[in-house]
Q: What sequence folds into this?
């Protein structure tokens, strides 16, 4: 932690995100792993996370406190709230707010946003309304919670992503004494440019965020994001990569680069990890054997990619093409390769034939239909990943065995039934060749578990890696490949060659890159990165509010 006596320390830090006690993406990992550092710096009673109360889904790691504290805060907020604890390292206080009743005031809230900030809420679509209503509800909680504390000076609120931007804008109008920090993890326009197959990097200096938001249909989201970035007392983003994007598309240069650290306490000790490795490998190999009707030896190389389902942005397209290139090598491969693609999609149900085969232990000698799928999907005929795997199906099941597991790894997916961190120890090598990746937690998680990884220079974490090591070879524990708008084929070959080379290493030879991976991860924990947040907090608290 910082010991700079010139920094102003907040007396109360409140933070909101759609992913507080709600695991749906990478921001959950950011907040849940950073919580311990915040509690250590400011004390448990002075840190509060505000998340959505979700009636129809299961909250992640939230324990509701007993007592009547809910009633008083609910009265102050004017909405039902639930006080409790987020069960992550640091065990911070959390409030979940039931934002549904606030829909009745949507027209009034949207008029206020138009009147003061020029935001046209009526053109929002998809998750726009739900995000904005929750964001305002979270801001109401922050205003009310402040009143319950004796120290009402140097109060700080943090808002993450465009999804909470309207809350920041509301708070600036209704409680301007609270200092605000806005963090964008990915700009809505940048993500849309990349996701729509346009060249993001070659043309970046020529893009205008406002014009592109209209062209791509994300004007409402972009307007909130841009206004929140400009109205915030301090503005931050997660990497130099996204910092350049924000400067161009949001027209504000970030005050701070808030790199995402990792909490070492989340990594089990060597003995436990060894047990987890055995269990995970046995389960994954059993799934592959059952689906493909093939004999796979215990030394099969298991590689994995994971993350949000963004086919191009997350490099899923490149990963599959690398598997194609591997399969075409045929007998030249030193080992069979099982490739786990753990990316949540629109799941219909776990495959019953697969579950039967695993549970009975019956050894099938014929491959099943669509052997690359562990679950049935609602959109198998249109999903770009399943379509490509199907088109290449003649290649699978000889030396290369893709497994598309489209469910969240929460231990209850119905097939693997292991959490992500229980699965990770069973993996030999990970591949995250993202085209658009503001930070990239998945490669950081991988090396924290001692698993070498392939990432890209368009990921914030990849760029940070190259500031520490060359990243030119997997022997360093991390290979950072260049991802440009026109080098797809070259990247495919680079990944394919690296996997072949790594599969040929024995256990002793793998020890070196594994140890280097672990060593680098120790430079990327919150103990090193939290000081950047302290700087952002100081910047916000020192800003003249007049």
A:
């Amino acid at each position: 932690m910082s010991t700079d006596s010139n920094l102003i320390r907040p007396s109360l830090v409140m933070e909101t995100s759609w992913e507080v006690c709600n695991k749906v993406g990478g921001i959950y990992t950011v907040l849940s792993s950073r919580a311990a550092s915040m509690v250590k710096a400011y004390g448990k009673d002075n840190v509060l996370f505000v998340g959505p109360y979700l009636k129809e889904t299961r909250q992640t790691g939230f324990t509701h406190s007993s007592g009547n504290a809910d009633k008083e805060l609910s009265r102050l907020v004017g909405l039902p709230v639930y006080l409790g604890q987020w069960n992550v390292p640091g065990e911070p206080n959390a409030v979940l707010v039931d934002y549904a009743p606030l829909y009745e005031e949507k027209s009034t809230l949207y008029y206020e946003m138009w009147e003061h900030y020029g935001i046209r809420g009526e053109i929002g679509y998809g998750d726009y309304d739900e995000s904005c209503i929750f964001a305002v509800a979270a801001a109401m909680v922050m205003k009310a919670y402040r009143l319950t504390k004796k120290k009402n000076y140097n109060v700080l609120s943090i808002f993450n992503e465009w999804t909470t931007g309207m809350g920041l804008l509301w708070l600036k109008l209704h409680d301007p004494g609270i200092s605000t920090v806005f963090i964008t993890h990915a700009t809505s326009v940048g993500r849309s440019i990349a996701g729509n197959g346009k060249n993001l990097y070659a043309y970046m200096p020529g893009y205008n965020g406002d014009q592109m938001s209209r062209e791509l249909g994300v004007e409402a989201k972009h307007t909130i994001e841009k206004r929140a970035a400009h109205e915030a007392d301090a503005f931050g983003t997660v990497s130099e990569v996204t910092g350049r994007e924000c400067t161009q598309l949001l027209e504000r240069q970030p005050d701070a680069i808030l790199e995402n650290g990792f909490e070492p306490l989340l990594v089990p000790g060597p003995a436990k990890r060894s047990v987890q490795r055995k269990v995970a490998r046995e389960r994954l190999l059993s799934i592959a054997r059952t689906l493909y009707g093939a004999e796979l030896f215990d030394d099969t190389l298991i590689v994995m990619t994971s993350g949000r389902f963004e086919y191009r942005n997350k490099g899923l397209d490149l990963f599959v093409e690398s598997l194609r290139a591997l399969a075409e090598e045929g007998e030249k491969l030193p080992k069979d390769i099982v490739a786990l693609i753990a990316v949540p999609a629109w799941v219909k149900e776990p495959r019953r034939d697969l579950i039967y085969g695993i549970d009975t232990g019956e050894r099938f000698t014929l491959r099943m239909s669509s052997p690359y799928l562990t679950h049935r999907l609602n959109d198998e005929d249109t999903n770009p990943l399943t379509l490509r795997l199907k088109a290449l199906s003649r290649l699978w099941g000889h030396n290369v065995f893709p497994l598309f597991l489209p469910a969240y790894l929460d231990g209850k997916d119905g097939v693997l039934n292991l959490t992500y961190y229980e699965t990770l120890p069973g993996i030999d090598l990970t591949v995250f060749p993202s085209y658009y990746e503001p930070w990239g937690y998945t490669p950081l998680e991988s090396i924290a578990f001692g698993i070498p990884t392939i990432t890209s220079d368009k990921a914030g974490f990849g760029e940070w890696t190259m500031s520490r090591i060359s990243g030119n070879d997997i022997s360093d524990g991390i290979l950072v490949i260049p991802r440009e708008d026109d080098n797809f084929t070259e990247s495919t070959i680079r990944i394919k060659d690296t996997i072949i080379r790594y599969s040929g290493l024995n256990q002793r030879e793998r020890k070196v890159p594994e140890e280097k991976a672990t060593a680098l991860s120790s430079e990327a924990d919150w103990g090193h990165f939290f000081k950047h947040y302290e700087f952002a907090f100081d910047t916000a608290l020192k800003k003249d509010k007049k």
Remarks:
- DSSP finds 19 helices and 18 strands in the chain.
- The longest strand covers residues 47-52.
